Amino acid sequence: MSKLRILLTGGGGMVGRNLLEYPGIEEFDVIAPRSSELDLCNFSAVQAYLQKHRPDMVIHAAGKVGGIQANMREPVHFLMDNLDMGRNIVWAAHQAGIKRLINLGSSCMYPRNHNEPLKEEMVLKGELEPTNEGYALAKVVTARLCDYLMREDANYQYKTLIPCNIYGRHDKFDPAHSHLIPAIIHKVHLAKLAGQTSVEIWGDGTARREFMYAGDLADAVLRAIKDFETLPTYMNVGLGHDYTINEYYQAAADVMGYTGSFVHDLGKPVGMARKLVSVERQLAWGWKAQNGLREGIEKTYSYYLKEHQQ
Ligand SMILES: NC(=O)C1=CN([C@@H]2O[C@H](COP(=O)(O)OP(=O)(O)OC[C@H]3O[C@@H](n4cnc5c(N)ncnc54)[C@H](OP(=O)(O)O)[C@@H]3O)[C@@H](O)[C@H]2O)C=CC1
Ligand SMILES: C[C@H]1O[C@H](OP(=O)(O)OP(=O)(O)OC[C@H]2O[C@@H](n3cnc4c(=O)[nH]c(N)nc43)[C@H](O)[C@@H]2O)[C@@H](O)[C@@H](O)C1=O
């Protein structure tokens, strides 16, 4: 029997690479064009690619993605590029008659100022976080486009996964673009190399975040492909618990053997106070993450060391 053909966008990124290297992905015929081969911002190129390759399913994991500092620096492209990519791949897939699509959203889609776990029905029910509003708007529009297409013709099943923050192998460690955990690993590593006895934390460190190891998200996406029919239309992918920024720094220091101190720069941006996603729907569907924080940081740090040959 021929393998299910899957078009994976973002195959060169952290989520995409973790999926491509995940055990079991070889059951599928995955095509993963890089942006140099297929620019998702070019609608006619996307249309032509889908007509030529005719995948059975699309997994949309491409995006202009970065940490809080990148989002604050480039709101225009975080909005426009993600809007163009999302609209183009979803609309072109529909026009090509592709019936199954998994769209990757993000916990940034949720309204700010919620301390309780964020449920899928809360999307658009409040003010977005200003530091990544452009990115969030693009994510919401793409998810809604998927909804509307299904509403007009239920033969099209375009489902959205809403992951919490992700870290792991193939992450971005450049401070200009990185999220919290790769930023911590990079800063603490450089401090150790330089014999520095203090590392800077942005803000007072009391904000809370939920970071899932990228290998676990890959496992969830693979399960979503295999059990696509039972996958909810919108589903968070999370851990069910979070930590403070300070706790992430301490966990990384323990793993990396850093015994110095930390200093808080209260002038730096902190973003949402908390964005813990509800795992009610996810647990009912029957999936949970396997990697704990220490294990995830250990795997990420050893990847970082290999990449930096140190
Ligand atoms: N990282 C996180 O914490 C979270 C990520 N997500 C979502 O997961 C998805 C992947 O994120 P992540 O892997 O971290 O992101 P990365 O930045 O690691 O990867 C993004 C990918 O998108 C591709 N891309 C960017 N622009 C274009 C374009 N114009 N045409 C084609 N491809 C393009 C890049 O391709 P190339 O390398 O070929 O240029 C790159 O491989 C995104 O949708 C993101 O919103 C959701 C929640 C949390
Ligand atoms: C993933 C999801 O979420 C992203 O938003 P975010 O969670 O705010 O991004 P972040 O991981 O960069 O910050 C997390 C927290 O950590 C604190 N913090 C401390 N010290 C450093 C530090 O050195 N670097 C960074 N980046 N943050 C730091 C920082 O002050 C903030 O409170 C979106 O960009 C968007 O990409 C999106 O989809």
Structure description:
- The structure is a single chain.
- This protein has 310 residues and is of the alpha/beta class.
- It has a domain at 5-169 and 211-239 and 277-291: NAD(P)-binding Rossmann-like Domain (Rossmann fold).
- The protein is 41% helix and 15% strand.
- The protein is built from ten helices and twelve strands.
- The strands form four sheets. Strands 2-1-3-4-5-10 form a six-stranded parallel sheet, with helices on both faces.
- The relative contact order is 0.15.
- NADPH dihydro-nicotinamide-adenine-dinucleotide phosphate (NDP) binds at residues 9-10, 12-16, 34-35, 38-41, 61-65, 85, 104, 106, 163, 165-166, 179.
Summarize the structure.
The chain has 310 residues and is an alpha/beta fold. The chain is 41% helix and 15% strand.
